[in-house]
């Protein structure tokens, strides 16, 4: 890719540009939750090109029993900058960051019909996890897991381990 892409932590001054990406990327209800999540616990990585923030990923981590896990809660790229592997790069950075911080696995979930998000996650080595797979991993704590990752109806869970 012939663009000067920088992936870094969000700064306070990036907030308006991240909100713009959110407004251009999500339906109304999701916009509200995505914008709200910027103020909540966790980290936000942004993708910057020529001093413009063109994408972001909101990350959270959680524990189940004594194990630590990461989750990519939201990810979006400005419509004018899509299909340039920016989301792929953000995802890759998120996974690396979580693994460096000691996560046992990194999760993401997205709507079944979100071909773009599913393609990005597949490409970055995530695999789909059904209820039985997650049950084997978490036992009866699976419901705690669904709550931790903000699982919504119609979504597929994916894992990178
Ligand atoms: C999902 C999203 C973040 C992808 O961002 P992106 O930067 O365009 O994705 P990338 O360029 O990294 O895509 C990597 C690969 O995934 C696949 N892909 C990406 N978008 C695709 C699409 N719309 N249709 C089919 N495949 C797609 C392609 O294989 C692509 O590689 P290629 O362009 O070389 O063929 C972006 O479409 C977006 O912001 N969508 C709205 C928000 C959203 O749905 N977020 C996910 C749920 S939180």
Kindly describe this structure.
The protein has 161 residues and is an alpha+beta fold. The chain is built from six helices and seven strands. Helix 3 links the parallel strand 4 and strand 5 (105-111). The two termini are 27 Å apart. The mean pLDDT is 96. The structure holds coenzyme A. Coenzyme A binds at residues 25-26, 74-77, 82-88, 110, 114-117, 119-120, 123. Residues 25-26, 74-77, 82-88, 110, 114-117, 119-120, 123 line the site of coenzyme A.
Main attributes of the structure:
single chain, 161 residues, alpha+beta, Aminopeptidase, seven-stranded mixed beta sheet, 6 helices, 7 strands, binds coenzyme A
- Based on CA atoms alone, the radius of gyration comes out at 15 Å
Biggest β-sheet: count, sense, barrel?
A: 7 strands, mixed
What is the overall silhouette? globular
Note the total helix count.
6
Number of separate strands: 7
**Percent range for helical residues?**
25-40%
Strand content: 25-35%
**Strand order in the sheet with the most strands:** 1-2-3-4-5-7-6
Q: What is the CATH topology descriptor?
A: Aminopeptidase
> Architecture in CATH?
3-Layer(aba) Sandwich
Q: Residue-averaged pLDDT, rounded?
A: 96
CATH class: Alpha Beta
